[in-house]
Please model this.
Amino acid sequence: MTPGESLKEQLQSLRIERGAAPAAAAAPARARRGRALVAGALAVLLAVFGAYRWIAAPLPVHVVHARVQGADQPITGPVLSGSGYLITAEKYIAIGVRVPGRIERFLVDEGDRVENGQLLAELDARDYRAQTGRAEAALRLAAANRKLAEADRGRIRELYRQGVASRQELDQAESRFDVMAASVAQAQNEVAQARANLDDTKLRSPVRGVVLAKLKGVGEIAVPGGFAGSGDLLRLADLSELRAELDVSESDLGNVHMGQRAEVVPDAYPQLRFAATVVKLYPQINRQKGTLKVEVRIENPDAHLLPDMSVRVTFFATAAAVADAGAPLVIVPRAALRRGPNGAYVWTVVNERLVRKPVAVAAEAGEEVPVSRGLSGGEALVTDPEQRLREGIRATIVAQ
Model:
């Protein structure tokens, strides 16, 4: 083979056939289009299947039940709430001394519950026992002198009747007896005073309550009175009547009145609820805060409640609601009541389907609303958001 022929064969091997390239490139493109069509078909099938499942599957809903109440019974509900703290009806009771003395001992400690008349503390009583002894001795001396003067008066009277004693002697005998009798009366009063002072060295509780604080220590000198309660030894609280005190804004005063029902919930025990009644509206507005102080009396307090404890007070209003022809009222929780352009309505679950029912509201007084028409009581009322609900769709109750 000549060198020219060899070079020609090499150049022929490098030649590209232009008609074969489009055919080779068309095969992958057709494969890609096929795969896209299959994926689209699957997506459509999945969407149809999901829509079917969404339409066919029941909607889980939360419900509350309507209840029946007689037409003559009042409808009550919360209209106002606020924070306050517990106080006693007599505020705080300060126990001080009536006689000065050194504190010898305390028989109670902070937090102890005490009964009426229970001994709380004692002062050093030695001086007062000595004073009582002197007063009793003076009484015995005065009594002896009166007895002697009485005997002298009797003898002088007899001598006067016999004409032996003069009128002046009789008058003197009568006067001495009167003086001795007055001395006895004075000595008796001094004995009573000394005994009272001795008894005052023992401090007793005037009420049934709890010890809030000891204001002095053993060995200190206690004196009556004092500036700003400096002579007080103990501070008690009478727990026989506990009240909750709170400030109510001027704009809310129309929702509070004497005798109104209320409920007290201590912050420390939110699971406990105590019935209460409004018993005091202070006669003056606080100008700086724009509030009025209100007190409610707790009807049945227990050991959980302590003075100065923070509480939440809820006031209840009573609304008179009369149904048509005296028929019973149906009470609907406010969470289930809806309002639209055509009035109030509720969503109910009937035979596992959602049904929208219009209702007539009789009155509103808090979280429970009386309905006079549209419900008969016992219906399962849906509380879920409005946008989830559609007339006639299937529903299943998941919580009540």
